[in-house]
Amino acid sequence: MNQDGLLNVLTSHATSGLAVIETGAGSDDDLLAAFREVLRADDRWQDRHGGAGPGRDHMLPALVPPHATLPVVGGELELGASQSVVLVTTGRDAPGRTVRLSFLG
Q: Could you list the residue range(s) of the whole structural domain that residue 95 is in?
């Protein structure tokens, strides 16, 4: 049975978000370069967890939300021809990330 509905995607990590972008043509590298510019790796960021520097990583979900809601039509995601859903994280010392999917149809 092909179904229509909405797919909700969530990453429940303080230093990651989800973006719907074109990948493979350089946009993914451009996105990371933009974050390096906006979220500079310096000592301006506060982190009350005791680590040095990851406070900037905690700002990422304010720019790239940790969730996305995507249309599903006939059992298929309705994305543009070149669009992908990507997990974005700036935390280098972060362990593996998980993504939760919920379908409403």
A: 5-104
């933009």: which residue's tokens? 34
Residue 85's domain is classified under what CATH number? 2.60.120.460
The per-residue pLDDT for range 41-89, each reduced to its tens digit, is 777 776 666 655 567 788 888 899 999 999 999 999 999 888 999 998 8
Strands of the sheet containing 67-73, edge to edge, are 76-77, 67-73, 5-10, 100-104
Task: Give one word for 75, left, alpha or beta, with left for phi > 0 and alpha for psi -120 to 50.
Answer: left
Contact yes or no for 84/27 (Cβ under 8 A): no
Distance CA 92, CA 48 (A): 18
Greater model confidence, 26 or 85: 85
Report CA 85 to chain centroid distance, whole Å: 8
Cβ(17)–Cβ(105) below 8 Å: no
